[in-house]
Amino acid sequence: MIKGGHFDPYLTEFETSSHAAVQWFKAHL
Questions:
Q1: Which of 29, 28, 5 is nearest to 17 (CA)?
Q2: If DSSP codes are grouped into helix, strand and coil, which group holds residue 19?
Q3: Could you tell me the superkingdom of the organism this chain comes from (predicted)?
């Protein structure tokens, strides 16, 4: 889980959330 509110993964925590998303897609696609 990423700390913060609904938009924090797209704003203040973008690097963390985008890295996690890329890793997920690499593993599952």
A1: 5
A2: helix
A3: Bacteria
On whether the pTM is more than 0.85, the answer is: no
Indicate the helix (H) or strand (E) that contains 26. helix 14-28
Residues 6+ apart with CB under 8 A from 12: 4
d(CA 29, CA 16): 20
List of residues 6+ apart from 10 with CB closer than 8 A: 17
pLDDT tens track for 1-29 = 777 888 887 888 888 889 999 999 999 99
